[in-house]
Amino acid sequence: MATVARFNVTPVKGTALVHPDAVTLTPAGIPENRRFFLVDATGELFSGFDFGPLVRVRAWVDAGSELTCAFPAGDVVSGPAEDLGPALVVDFSGRPVAAREVRGPFAASFSTYVGQSVRLLRADRDGDGPDVLPLSVVGTSSVADLGRRGGYAGDLDPLRFRINVELDGTQPFEEDAWDGRLVAIGEAVIRIAGQIPRCAVTTQDPATGVPDWNTLKQIAAFRAPMPDRQGIPFGMYATVEAPGVAAVGSEVAPLDG
Fold it and tell me: Of 29, 68, 202, 233, which one has the fewest beta carbons inside 10 Å?
């Protein structure tokens, strides 16, 4: 039986992942995931692809909508998550995302940390912060299989793939065979919606953001490039067809076919 092993979310794209015991899945995916993101001085998206050590920043939003960001050196900045500036549109690999700048101390603190001018933005709509579709899924056995094939020393941490839902109890790459199918996950129903093309972020140590293993080379050694989305596939996108709560340990099972 397949079950949820772990959830991985972050309020600010590229920063450290947190692992809630339960989430509410909606058409926006996990609504609180990647509500915020950075752009550079030209308004281009800025993420862990540009500066891996973003993953060392911890971010959270409390019940009063106060956003807090804790940096590795010990400095912590907070401010209202709803204190927003003028509207603008950011290019997410060809997909326009409407957003507003978050006022307060965030731009200065992130700029100092990454070594260049950046601003923190909030997407107007929940679910727009993820790269393509609002949810992603992978089996822990798929990650373990990749580590074995590539001769990785120790256990390959699934966190380097920054996928929302990790599954236990599946065969390696069983989730790929669910493409297009409806899958129950706790009280919710999702639809698996194609493979994820991977980027260089997956080569980075998920704790430090420093490149430490050529994940893309190892995947490409046994998986063909994607015909419809340019890249080497690992993990699956998903959409939410019926909202509901899912928890760590919830059963996960295809409903059709």
Answer: 68
